[in-house]
Amino acid sequence: MRSKNHAQEFAQEFAQESRSRITLKNSSQNPSYNLHMSHKSPPYWMYGMHSVAAALANPRRTCAQLLVTEQALETLTALLRQHASTHPAQGRLAKATLTPKRAIDKLHKACTTHQSLSLKCHPLPPPPLSAFVETLRAKTTTLVMLDRVQDPHNIGAILRSARFFKVQALLLAKGHAPQENASIAKAACGALEDIPILYTNLAQALTTLGKKGWSRIAFDAHAQENAQEDDKPQDDILSAEHKVLVFGAEGKGLRRLVRQHCDHITRIAGGDGDESLNVSNAVAVALALAGERQKNR
């Protein structure tokens, strides 16, 4: 295996190709890339090619160390070339440490999906809800709220759907939901860098949004109203310009206070008997319905 200089060569080549398209910022110009910057949340090891590439390309992400095999570094470099046209800053590949795959295997123990690279990074600082809502300027805005959803793979999959359907943020229950971690990042496949996660008191958040005129729509498998029926009031509900879609964990559903703070309770029809959708699939279906209704409004 070649020395660390080989990683620097990849980074220099990438920088030369990207310089005509983006403005490069070093750590003194952009503190988000300062590898010695103090951070409130402890770092963790992120893995997965797309997740790591997106994190490196995100100027808000504080990165500490990148371990990568030589082959994976070539793939990562090619992937970052794609990010260069859409992200304001490039990843710091010159900081990469070429590492044997067995060492990365040992770092992640039983995980077999690390794809031969690992990035030590700090979680993105979550913005407060009120301040974040004030920054939203789009004519149509959608938030997704999850109550008692604990599975990081579901949360990551929901982030991917949220990015696809142009959701502005994901709201999770403060103290009752997993913090940003490697499993969420891997399942999100880079969407973690684009969709802010806000940890908040859900009932209070719904009260705040309601006062600002947002439609608060809860999805419950046992609700009487059917979100797919065009002749029902849900047709207007899902086409609201500013809305928050609320989902509970499969089986547990929504807590009483969260449910009480919603304007409408609806369901996604389908299946037989007690059959229901996985929460990540339910979110994707609901977002697709809302997008279609908004388009046809």
Task: Tell me what the structure shows.
The structure is a single chain. This protein is α/β, with parallel strands linked by helices. The chain has 2 domains: 4-121, no CATH class; 129-295, Alpha/beta knot (3-Layer(aba) Sandwich), CATH 3.40.1280.10. Helix content is 37%, strand content 16%. The chain is built from 11 helices and 10 strands. It has helices at residues 4-18, 49-56, 70-83, 101-108, 129-135, 152-164, 182-188, 202-211, 234-238, 256-260, 279-295; strands spanning 44-47, 63-68, 96-98, 117-121, 141-147, 169-173, 197-200, 215-219, 242-248, 264-266. The strands form 2 sheets. A 6-stranded parallel β-sheet has the order 7-6-5-9-8-10, with helices on both faces. α6 (152-164) links the parallel β5 and β6. α1 packs parallel to α3. The chain is elongated and about 55 Å long. The model is unreliable at 13-39 (pLDDT under 50).
**CATH fold type of the largest domain:** Alpha/beta knot
Radius of gyration (CA) equals 21 Å
Q: What structural class do helix, strand and pairing data support? A: alpha/beta
CATH class of the largest domain: Alpha Beta
Give a quick rundown of the structure:
By secondary structure, the chain is an alpha/beta fold.
